[in-house]
Amino acid sequence: MNIVEISEKFPTELDAVKYFEQKRWGDTPICAYCESPNLSKRGKDLRFKCYSCGKSTFVTVDTALHSTNMGLKKWMFAFSIVCDAKKGLSALQLQRNLNVSYPTALNMYHKMRNLMIIENDTIELEGIVEMDEMYVGGKPRKFNNGETNKPLVKTSIPELDERIDELKEVGIKFKRGKGNPAKSAENPKRGRGTSKIPVIGIVERNGDVVAQVSKQVTSKQLKEMVQKYVDVDDSVLISDEYKGYSRMDEIIEHVKIDHQRLYSYKGVNTNSIESFWAIIRRQIIGQHHQVSLKHLPKYVAEAVFKYNNRKVDDMFETLVINAMKSHKMDNIPNSL
């Protein structure tokens, strides 16, 4: 549901509240505290008073949106804007779209990612599945000679030094800005063996994907993830020749492809999971630029949620339904 449809179908805050009530309770609202249908008429604040327990009740009580100060119609706009952004969007963009403060936009976005994690926890894969890892972190910086394996001695450009000195005489000074001075360590590593954060993923051909942040990539963790999300009896696993996959034959039919020789052979490849990694990279590089380990599982969960719902337009409704679930589900872990 896009923002135009929301504006037309829910012109007032009351219409939005009734929509959330229908998703939580159906046609008959009940008390969120004692579940009694014995309620007063709706007050000006859109709340009910329960005649059974005497409490003032509202549709967001004891849900993922418990104690929110934001109107539900604005939450609907937020759900729609985020769902329409295939590769995510920045909290600053959400702030501008909703006309709220940056901390509010950031907290709302993280709340929505928590709702996506709830949905992702029910994924089941079967058939031909591909497994791989990606590593989140910046690329090694190159030295001034364009290489990463050996530093170059300090560079001197006489004609440019002369021009800089001339400008200094007339009061123009060039200063280095704050930030990374573009230094690099010798022989920086890429991929496995780096200090970057690993993310493990499994995708079903033409189906869903599951991905989790992991502190390490070990054979035990890889096997546990396959056993948790894949129907091992009716599936075939494709991976590269990383040694962590060497014992997959014990639990599932397993085919390996040597990426040192080629990337695809007669349909045996990991192109689907690589395509998913490309989405995450574009999301991080293009929208967020960098993410912390603390919040990385949520960014991954967002990419997984949107990928798995790419063929059906139910993301908005799914977020509304999940928002009406118990707030105790708010911090479901999404990392190994």
Automatic annotation (TrEMBL):
Residues 124-308 form the ISXO2-like transposase domain. Pfam families: DDE_Tnp_IS1595, Zn_ribbon_IS1595. InterPro entries: Tnp_ISXO2-like, Transposase_Zn_ribbon. This is ISXO2-like transposase domain-containing protein. The lineage of its organism: Bacteria, Pseudomonadati, Bacteroidota, Flavobacteriia, Flavobacteriales.
